[in-house]
Every structure is written in structure tokens, then in C-alpha cells.
Design a protein that fits this description.
mainly alpha; TerB-like; globular
Length: 143
């Protein structure tokens, strides 16, 4: 499963150090998971894109330029394989409960950035919560 995810994410440019490669893989998995919230209501508004950038900057201490580059890669990888399972599995096994909960809170803020939680967004949040190993109602508590 991880091999398929790595293949869908593409190769990282000039990264020889496996620890650095893992950091990039972790960030990309999180970006893909968070990006999956944007198209859930069938309309991507600028506020959602901005909230996604801010979330990645805060979660991983990225610059604006690096967060934009990461999002571009996440969009491309998501187009090739929109499944959330592999991304969530990486995040579930590599990050603490507290980080996963912050990630879910970021996903909730992205969903709410247009002022309304749509039914499809609520479904995606519930699925993300479950895949990250959080309880079924955690997405409502993480905001």
C-alpha cells in the first residue's frame, strides 16, 4: 500500500536523505488529506484555498511559497489517486493523537471557511476522522 502511495505522490526532487524524504512524504500525505475537503461541496472558493495554505504553514512551519508548492503536488497526486486510505494510514502511524486531532481541526476549518458545513463536507470529515483513528464524533469536537 505504501509503495502505491509513494508512486502516486511522485518522486521528490533531489532528496537522498531518507529522513528528509519521509518528512516530505508526511507533508504531502497531510496536504492530500486536507485538499480532499475542498472539492467535497463541488465548489472550491478562494477562502478554502487560503485556509488550506494556512493550515499547512501552521502544521509544518512552512513558508507561503513552500505551502503553495506542496498544494500543487497534492492536487496532482490527488488527481491520480483520490483515495484517502494510504495518506491517512501514513499519518495515523507516524503522528501522535494530538497532531492528528490538529490535522482534523484544520480540515474542519477548511470546510467551514465558506461559512457553511455542507453535507458532503461533513461526510468527508467523518471519514477522515475514522481513517486517522479518531472517534466518530471527533470531527465535531476538533473545530
Amino acid at each position: 500500500m505504501f509503495d502505491r502511495l509513494i508512486e502516486s505522490l511522485g518522486r521528490t526532487n533531489q532528496i537522498d536523505d531518507s529522513a528528509q524524504g519521509r518528512v516530505v512524504e508526511n507533508q504531502l500525505a497531510a496536504a492530500m488529506l486536507l485538499y480532499s475537503v475542498l472539492p467535497a461541496d463541488h465548489v472550491i472558493v478562494p477562502q478554502e484555498s487560503m485556509e488550506l495554505r494556512l493550515a499547512l504553514q501552521h502544521l509544518f512551519f512552512l513558508t507561503d511559497l513552500k505551502s503553495r508548492h506542496l498544494i500543487t503536488r497534492a492536487v496532482s497526486a490527488h488527481a491520480r489517486d483520490p483515495s484517502l486510505v494510504a495518506c491517512a494510514t501514513i499519518l495515523k502511524h507516524r503522528f501522535s493523537f494530538a497532531f492528528r486531532r490538529r490535522l482534523l481541526g484544520a480540515a474542519h476549518r477548511i470546510a467551514m471557511s465558506d461559512g457553511r458545513l455542507h453535507d458532503n463536507e461533513a461526510d468527508v470529515l467523518a471519514r477522515i476522522s475514522s481513517l486517522l483513528g479518531l472517534n466518530a464524533t471527533e470531527h465535531r469536537l476538533s473545530a
